[in-house]
């Protein structure tokens, strides 16, 4: 009996040792993000999870933690840097303090359309920006599409630079957004996102800027009458891994995660862009918003008005990248 107990104990110890000896990637990988379950964006995260499972033969498992379940951006970034959380998807805007190069993505009217964003972010310049995270405790795998930011308001259609004058817009409390709306002649009001609907409803602000999916899913159309597909700012998110954790992985496991991320980048763009088209149709046909866009002449005037914002925000480090980006987009 004593011998049997001893053998059982040794077997249990061996099993535990074998489990602990497994590479870190063979255990549960936590991926945090701020999307809502069941949305097209969250579907992209689930697609990534399925690709990791497929490519690793079930050896690597990723667990999805949406809606900020693992903490706010600062908390999750800190967890990545400390090796306590393996993965995070967050806005490139939240990463500018760790990698100044991401600032060029947020510059006003930096991209004309979806094709332009793909040309930059899915190419060598996108990789160069991701590499700028080196030394931050985070490693970037790829960019996920979150759509262009468009305008809505409750006063009148916005079709020219003059139409911005006197309107009050809720904006993200970052210099690029505050300066852009000021340059357009509007009154920017920085405000936390959860307060936006009430501010629109009560008339505290006249309008806001967000991707069309947000306008639909947050019911902003209930308190807004006019929509302009302005594409004045592009919203992208970065899929990150913890650098300490990444460094502990084998080359094979790194390759699996990178390939899964690359496949997800393509799938995410197809799904998100179809969803944006659906949202636009809903806002026009069912919600009844009046939708307008800028003529080429109006867009030229608006771009000229915000050009000083771009010039102000470019630095010695970001200007060379911005100039390379303009050259790529002109090809």
Task: Give the topology.
Blueprint: H1 2-21, E1 28-32, H2 40-55, E2 61-65, H3 73-81, E3 87-91, H4 103-106, H5 114-121, H6 124-131, E4 138-153, E5 168-171, H7 175-183, E6 187-190, H8 196-202, E7 207-210, H9 212-217, E8 226-242, H10 243-247, H11 251-285, E9 290-292, H12 296-313, H13 318-330
Parallel strand pairs: 1-2, 1-3, 5-6, 5-7, 8-9
Antiparallel strand pairs: 3-8, 4-7, 4-8
Helix pairs in contact: 2-11, 7-12
Would you kindly provide a written description of the structure presented here, covering whatever features stand out?
This protein has 331 residues and is α/β, with parallel strands linked by helices. It is built from 13 helices and nine strands. Strands 1, 2, 3, 4, 5, 6, 7, 8 and 9 form a nine-stranded mixed sheet that branches. Helix 7 (175-183) links the parallel strand 5 (168-171) and strand 6 (187-190). The longest helix has 35 residues, at 251-285. The radius of gyration is 23 Å and the shape is globular. The termini are far apart. The model is unreliable at 1-25 (pLDDT under 50).
Average pLDDT for all residues: 92
Ends distance: 79 Å
- The secondary-structure class comes to alpha/beta
Beta-sheet strand percentage?
Answer: 15-25%
Helix % is 40-55%
Approximate shape: globular
In short:
The protein has 13 helices and 9 strands.
Task: Name some characteristics of this structure.
globular, 9 strands, alpha/beta, 19% strand
